[in-house]
Amino acid sequence: MNSNQDQFETKLIHASSSGLVEQKTGAVNVPIYLSSTYHQESFDDFGPFDYSRSGNPTRLALEQTIAQLEGGSRGLAFASGMSAISSAFMLLSSGDHVLVSEDVYGGTYRFITEVLNKYLIDYTFVNMTDLNEVAGAIKQNTKVIYIETPSNPCLNITDIEGVVKIAKANYCLTFLDNTFMTPFYQSPLELGVDIVLHSATKFLSGHSDIIAGLAVTKNEELGEKLAFIQNTFGSILGAQDSYLLVQGMKTLGTRLKQSSGSAMKIATHLVDHPLIEEVFYPGLRFHRGYPIHLRQTKGDGAVLSFRLPNKAIAKAFVESMRLPVFAVSLGAVESILSYPATMSHAAMPRIEREKRGITDGLLRLSVGLEHVDDLIADIDQALEVAGHQFVIS
Ligand SMILES: *Cc1c(COP(=O)(O)O)cnc(C)c1O
């Protein structure tokens, strides 16, 4: 059982068993309830579960766990991060307007510009690191301000409390994508945010195995509304994936602490290398958002980006790396190296991409659980090979 006084690492281990335990068997793990429907004992008084789209005991254990970890009143589990995010936007009505961080996740950008607009919901993208720009972009019909911090891939930092203050003054809700920091390092609801969203595919599950999304609302009223959308739209997380996510989250603290420590060492190491033009990591003192990040988080995370001089050198570097997988996604036990220009931001026109600092030499590294010395040795030998490319080009 959890106590409110417990440290976060302790809560991670015991949160999933604090609500619905298997009372009859004493099983230490949440059972996987593969049941779409539930027998009703009474003709006119139904039990807590009737049909698994509306509620499933394994999913409920997960939903109660994330609600507890984020300090919210209601947690909801979805089939993907995108389905959690798009379901939250379904709280809006036609005629409403949303204010969105300009360097938002690509799938969120696509949903807002190519789906939400069809329902006559208007949007403005702003540089959310500039509070004056946020305040200036509010319209009479603005209902939601959508934050993602740190952002991808340049790890820009938004002042959460600053944006919440503007939102509250204008009767807007705030949604925040907490995928990069997770509740282990960042507690948006405590800072006044209304809904926290996650791609649980990343750090929360942590093993590159499932696609999953989570949402947590600050108050019960919003929770009821979002649960209605979840049940109506039907994009729920299945019982087996719910189980895997519950298990993955237990080790979140240990994983994130080790990966963040390694990321800091790697970032510091890269800063000194002559071939690296720029390093983006919110734990570095000269990072633009450092003071705000320090104030609103408990750690720096496992993702960093760095800029090599050009595409040929980036290619030589990637092809010489031995340990990380070269892939999209992040937040796993194995390090993941990705090339934003053709992966996460492939759909973005070159001009828009470069305006956001996503040049042809930019690489993103999500640091896993390999020994940091092995990762640094691997990076060094790949930089050496890439350096020869520099001499050629
Ligand atoms: C991956 C990701 C998403 C989308 O989540 P899926 O689980 O892939 O649908 C949303 N936001 C961020 C920050 C992400 O990294």
Automatic annotation (TrEMBL):
Annotated GO CC locations: cytoplasm
The enzyme's E.C. designation: 4.4.1.13
Record-given protein name: cysteine-S-conjugate beta-lyase
Keyword annotations of the record: Amino-acid biosynthesis, Aminotransferase, Lyase, Methionine biosynthesis, Pyridoxal phosphate, Transferase
InterPro entries assigned: Cys/Met-Metab_PyrdxlP-dep_enz (IPR000277), Cys_met_metab_PP (IPR054542), PyrdxlP-dep_Trfase (IPR015424), PyrdxlP-dep_Trfase_major (IPR015421), PyrdxlP-dep_Trfase_small (IPR015422)
Residues the record lists as N6-(pyridoxal phosphate)lysine modifications: 202
Family recorded in the similarity comment: Belongs to the trans-sulfuration enzymes family.
Single GO molecular function: transaminase activity
Cofactors, names only: pyridoxal 5'-phosphate
Pfam families: Cys_Met_Meta_PP
CDD domains xrefs: CGS_like
GO biological process terms held by the UniProt record: methionine biosynthetic process; transsulfuration
Lineage: superkingdom: Bacteria
